[in-house]
Amino acid sequence: MLNLGMTEIFCFAVIALLVLGPDKLPEAARFVAKWYGKIKKFINNIQNEIDRELKLSEFREEMQKEIEKITELERRMQMQLDELKKTPSTAQKTADESSKSEAKSSNTYQPYTTPMTVPFRLQYHALLSTDAHSTFSSAPSDSELKIAV
Known about the structure:
The protein has helices spanning 6-104, 130-135, and strands at 116-119, 144-147. The protein contains 2 helices and 2 strands.
């Protein structure tokens, strides 16, 4: 804080000893140290308070930015909802038109929606010895992997 070196402190001590004398020097040193401690605490408290206020203001700015982002997202969502509310009426009209055209044409594509069953079993015959191979039957297993296509 004061950036005093050892030589400056020694010079102050010699001058204080000459001016105050050996009787009053300890009392003066205690007095100066006490006030130095109070001033240092006061300055530290002010610095901490300033730091706290700066952090609080930064926090407020961040909160304001987040509120603006949320407001923007809310506005976008409201616009999308409004578009969706308008869209079903036109989508329903196009669906009605397409159903009419499908009724007219008998050659429309109908996707196959029934799931297929594909047998799935792993062959371990090459890995097993001839003794172990005899314990396993070569009959198809009950476990199947069903794949919906």
